[in-house]
Design a protein that fits this description.
Layout (H helix, E strand, L loop, with lengths): L1 E2 L2 E2 L14 H11 L4 E6 L2 E6 L3 E5 L8 E5 L2 H9 L3 E2 L9 E5 L7 H15 L2 H10 L8
């Protein structure tokens, strides 16, 4: 950004969550198995991107450092926000993003893996989706 033709200095963001924490490591392993997924630190938190677009980030807020934020399938969004485990997140809520706490009792890691993949599918390029479909073919249907 510039003001009067001058470039404003970058804003330092406080670290929201320790990137080496075991919960972060577990999310990282789920995210980085997706085609062309990369991790980028932004706003003091780990973000996971399908090349450039973010599909998951950690630390919904300073008050919830051990949380994950994902972009939902628009058809599933309403059901997720009616589930007490999920909540709207600042700045992203109206665009079908939800947060959930990783350190809550009985965290459903299978559901989180599915939500991470769904979020990835919302932002990934066609070639990335094709690569994912090769990794995870749809179950065959019997006729």
């Amino acid at each position: 950004m510039s003001q009067g033709g001058r470039r404003l200095p970058a804003v330092e963001h406080p670290q929201v969550v320790d990137a080496r924490h075991p919960l972060v490591e577990r999310v990282r392993s789920l995210c980085l198995e997706l085609p062309e997924a990369v991790e980028v630190e932004a706003w003091g938190r780990p973000t996971f991107r399908a090349a450039k677009p973010i599909f998951t980030y950690l630390g919904a807020s300073m008050d919830r450092p051990f949380s994950i934020v994902v972009k939902t399938d628009p058809d599933e969004h309403r059901a997720l926000v009616q589930d007490d485990r999920f909540y709207g997140v600042p700045y992203f809520d109206r665009n079908h993003w939800v947060g959930t706490d990783l350190d809550a009792p009985h965290t459903d890691w299978q559901l989180l893996a599915e939500l991470i993949e769904t979020s990835y599918r919302q932002v990934a390029l066609k070639r990335q989706l094709a690569a994912l479909d090769v990794l995870r073919p749809a179950p065959e249907r019997s006729l």
